[in-house]
């Protein structure tokens, strides 16, 4: 896709709109949650949506600051695309059937797990320059979810609470949790490599 004079303004408008929508979803979920604030921040869904909101806020409003430069990095924005895509993938194919949210919880549930992931990946496809990612980036991107899994298991060991059923040692045991964790890390690596492949493909075709 060839750049036009209108594209920077369009990009900034999309960033601001999605940032506001994501902040709204996060704050609404915080208002609705009955658990502690630390438990709230211990969900990968929340962390990934916060990354989306912070990234878009800084890159659109404060692009020349230290954080603005960091979150304007193609590699960082691509990593966030990976994390939020996995959030949508896992929730809709693994977790959606385990509960039935109602009212505002249903609204925020779909915002965090469907709308924001879909719109951010679309934003990545349209506005983020392609062809600069390297295959090794797919490995580096997996460090964050791996650290998250380790944190969740250590914290869960001490307080007896786990954010997701597939990490709940008290119910399924360490063997299944380690197997699930291994599959999750592999999924992050494979999907990350897929995003890199898409980026390289668009670059070769001269699109986006």
From TrEMBL:
Coiled coil: none annotated. This is FAR-17a/AIG1-like protein. Keywords: Membrane, Transmembrane, Transmembrane helix. InterPro entries: Pr6Pr-like (IPR049713). NCBIfam families: Pr6Pr (NF038065). The keyword Transmembrane applies. The chain crosses the membrane at residues 12-31, 37-59, 80-99, 111-128, 140-158, 178-198. The keyword Acetylation does not apply.
